[in-house]
Design brief:
about 170 residues; six-stranded mixed β-sheet; alpha/beta; Glutaredoxin; single chain
Length: about 170
């Protein structure tokens, strides 16, 4: 292979690599959720209603809930959806696989990254003891409603409507 052919091939590979990086969703890799991340999350979404859905890779009910969340998100793309895996960083590859399978890689995503998950749960909600799925509906003033368990589509629609209607 000549040097110019090699240079063209190398250039093509570089372009494909750059394109692939740009094509990946910014949130494909979950962000590390550590002490203080909850306050950061709230600060990043001021005056904007959003849903925080907490799930785990080992929770069958969470998969059903996330499939419904995907459907709701696709039907209402203006609703800000944030996912938080209550697993640790060692499950990152599995988390990414699940998000890809459920077509949720375009959603802001976090994963517990602190050894003290009890502290992280307490920062989110002192009344939450770790059951998943757990979903929080925040209005624009960041008043929230927390619900444990899988929700029906009707219940999601009802809570989303209430969240959006609040001042």
């Amino acid at each position: 292979m000549s040097i110019s052919a090699f240079a063209r091939l190398l250039g093509l590979l570089c372009c494909l690599t750059i394109f692939n990086v740009w094509a990946e969703p910014a949130s494909a890799t979950p962000q590390a959720f550590v002490s203080g991340s909850y306050k950061q999350l709230l600060a990043n979404h001021t005056k904007q209603p959003f849903v925080l859905a907490i799930w785990s890779v080992n929770c069958v009910s969470c998969m059903k809930d996330m499939a419904l969340l995907r459907e709701i998100h696709q039907q209402n793309p203006t609703i800000k959806l944030i996912l938080l895996a209550a697993d640790d960083l060692s499950a990152n590859e599995q988390i990414q696989t699940i998000l890809a399978k459920l077509q949720l890689t375009d959603v802001e995503s976090w994963v517990f990254a602190d050894e003290n998950d009890q502290k992280l749960r307490f920062e989110i909600d002192p009344k939450w003891y770790g059951e998943v799925p757990r979903t929080y509906f925040f209005d624009a003033a960041q008043k929230r409603t927390g619900v444990s368990g899988v929700l029906s589509k009707e219940k999601y629609q009802d809570l989303l409507g209430k969240m959006a209607a609040m001042p």
